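Running this now, will post back.
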Amino acid sequence: MKLDKSLEARKLLHTTVYSQCFSPCGHYLATCNNYGKISIFSVSKALAPDASEGNWKQIFSFQACEDGALYCLATTGDLLISAGNGPICAWKWKEILDKSPRIVWSFSIPKRGPFSNPEVNTLVVDQQETGTALFAGCGDKNVYSWDLESGKQVLCMSGHTDYVHDISLKSDGNTLASASEDGSVNIWDVRDSAEPVYSIVPHKTESCCRPSLGKWVGCVAMDSSNDWLVCGGGPKMSLWHLRSMTATSVFDTPKACQQTVQFYDDMILSAGTEPFVNHWFVNGDQKAKVPCTPTSVFNVSVNKNDDKYKVLCASGSSYKIDVCTNFGYRAFSFSLTPD
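Update: finished.
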């Protein structure tokens, strides 16, 4: 028994939280880690006036993947979707919160070789009036899409020469951007996905190039106006005008590679291989550099589902998930606990 507890404690010190997702009601946060576990935290209880450190610990954790790490989470109105090694799985939020989760459905990435199925590195749910689609960027260099009503795979976008790190969709659901280890960001029209419409290659742009850090692109996002794209990785993070396909701003983080990025209000939020969350103006000037617990940050999420509990959470190479209530500093940290 003591040996088991010691092992769990050591595993905790080597935990990496790759992704986060807020519940549709905004009261809960789900995280996934390198041990294939999903953990749930109560945002509402942690922010209550009488909250204590006990409210910062997970309220529930379960083994969601038997094949290894989970790299990404996404949500629909009633489902939490997880992926990484092994199949993409869907869980009902209600059953998770009742502490009785079971897989509602699962999708497997087509097996193209003699060995294991490719990993899923990123998920995006697209909800339109015509239906709901799920997009997945994968380790086999492809981006796949499923119609969630029928469960059928409807798209396979092939054009990268190395694995896909991240994807982003325009608000109309018709244009997708995929960022890859091969150094490119491909722009796709999902209505005609035979080949990319355009390809951005940041490492070939002099103002972005950093040969010592590689050419890979680890994160990408498009803004709500559908006019702008931001991406980063080995090359410096850069802002691109989608109509002219030109880089208009460069965001300098010396020796640090950005691994997550998003547009938020009139800012850009990013983080990566240093213990900070960066706040940027779109012209490239840095607004804030907020210290955080993970030495390498893989995900920054903002709770947009309930204004009462609007927080920014940063996760990465730590069993602690930092919570910023005003985005400018860490208020406290959610904490995973040994089983």
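The longest helix spans residues 2-13. More later if anyone needs it.
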